[in-house]
Design goal:
Blueprint: E1 4-8, H1 12-26, H2 36-44, E2 48-54, E3 57-67, E4 74-82, H3 91-105, E5 110-115, H4 120-129, E6 133-138, E7 156-162, H5 166-173, H6 181-184, E8 200-204, H7 211-215, H8 217-236, E9 239-247, E10 250-257
Parallel strand pairs: 4-5
Antiparallel strand pairs: 1-2, 2-3, 3-4, 5-7, 6-7, 8-10, 9-10
C-alpha cells in the first residue's frame, strides 16, 4: 500500500504540478487556470497551499487565501482539486481536514468558499460531510467558465465553515455522515410564492449535474434562474443551507432559519 503524505507545498515545482491537477479536475482552458505565481504569492502572504502526495506524486491540493472583510480572522478557500483517477478515495475530506487543523493552529476559526449548488458531489462534501453552511447565492460569480461547466452561468453558493462549531468538530471526528433523508420528505418545499411560516424547508435542485450542462443547457439555465430566485428569498429571510439529501424526485437542500 503506497504511503500518502499530506503537507504544505515546499517548492515552486509543486505549485506548477497543482496547475496540472486543476486542469485535469476542471478541464478548464489555460486562461481560466489560477497561475502558479498567484498561488505562490498568496501563500507567501499568509495563505495555505497543501497537497496529498503519494511517492512524491501530487494527487490533490487545497489552496486558501487570507480574507480581510469578514470582521474576524478568516481564510477564503479558493481551490480544492483531486486528480479524476484518484477521486472518491477520501482525499478531498483529508485535504479539508488538513486545512481546518492548519487554520486553527494559525488562530483562524472561519473559512469561506464558493461551490456550484447543482453539483451533488460537492454539496455532499461541503454540507453533509464538512458541515459548512451556505449563506448566500452569487449568480454568475465567475462569468462563463467552460470546462465541466460548459456555457451555463457560474452561479455559486457561498459557504461558511465555522471551525470551532461543535457540529463541525463532531463531523471532523465522525467516520460516517449523519443521515438526513428520512426527514427531508416531510419538509415543506420552498417556492417562488409566499414563504411558509416555518423554520425548516427543503429546496429541490436538478440531479445529473454536470452532465446536464452539456445535454440540456437551456433547461439548466431556466432551473438556475428559478433556483437562484428562491434561494435569494430564503437567505434574505434568514435561512441557511444546513443539509442535503436525495429523494426519488431528485436531490434537495435543507434550510434552517437562523
Ligand atoms: C470535489 C472533489 C475535490 C472531491 O474530492 P474526492 O477526493 O473525490 O472526495 P472524497 O473521496 O474525499 O469524498 C468526499 C465526500 O464527497 C462526496 N462525494 C465524493 N464523491 C461523490 C460522488 N461521486 N457522488 C456523491 N457524493 C460524492 C461524499 O459525501 C464523500 O464523502 P463520503 O465518501 O464519506 O460519503 C473532487 O471530486 C474534485 O476535484 N472535483 C473537481 C474540482 C471541484 O469541483 N472542486 C470544488 C470542490 S468544492
Amino acid at each position: 500500500m503506497k504511503k500518502l503524505h499530506l503537507r504544505e507545498f515546499e517548492s515552486p515545482k509543486e505549485f506548477h504540478e497543482a496547475v496540472d491537477v486543476a486542469k485535469a479536475a476542471w478541464r478548464f482552458s489555460d486562461r481560466l487556470l489560477s497561475p502558479a505565481s498567484d498561488m505562490i504569492a498568496a501563500t507567501h502572504a499568509g495563505g495555505l497551499t497543501a497537497g496529498a502526495f503519494e511517492e512524491g506524486r501530487l494527487l490533490g491540493y487545497v489552496h486558501g487565501i487570507p480574507r480581510t472583510n469578514m470582521g474576524v480572522p478568516c481564510q477564503h478557500s479558493h481551490l480544492l482539486a483531486v486528480l479524476p483517477e484518484t477521486q472518491g478515495r477520501g482525499l478531498g475530506i483529508l485535504l479539508k481536514q488538513f486545512q481546518r487543523t492548519w487554520c486553527l493552529e494559525h488562530g483562524i476559526q472561519l473559512v469561506t468558499w464558493t461551490y456550484d449548488p447543482f453539483l451533488l458531489k460537492n454539496a455532499n462534501l461541503n454540507i453533509k460531510r464538512l458541515r459548512a453552511v451556505a449563506v448566500r447565492i452569487l449568480p454568475n460569480f465567475y462569468g462563463p467558465m467552460g470546462g465541466i461547466y460548459h456555457d451555463v452561468p457560474s452561479d455559486r453558493f457561498e459557504v461558511l465553515w465555522r471551525l470551532d462549531d461543535p457540529i463541525v468538530e463532531r463531523a471532523a471526528q465522525a467516520k460516517d455522515p449523519e443521515r438526513q433523508e428520512e426527514e427531508l420528505v416531510t419538509l415543506p418545499i420552498a417556492t417562488l410564492g409566499r414563504l411558509p411560516n416555518v423554520t425548516r424547508v427543503r429546496l429541490p435542485f436538478p440531479g445529473g449535474a454536470p452532465e446536464i450542462y452539456r445535454t440540456d443547457a437551456e433547461g439548466t439555465i431556466k432551473a438556475r434562474k428559478r433556483f437562484a430566485a428562491i434561494a435569494t428569498k430564503l437567505f434574505e429571510a434568514g435561512f441557511e443551507v444546513t443539509g442535503v439529501g436525495e429523494l426519488k424526485t431528485g436531490p434537495a437542500y435543507v434550510l434552517d432559519k437562523r
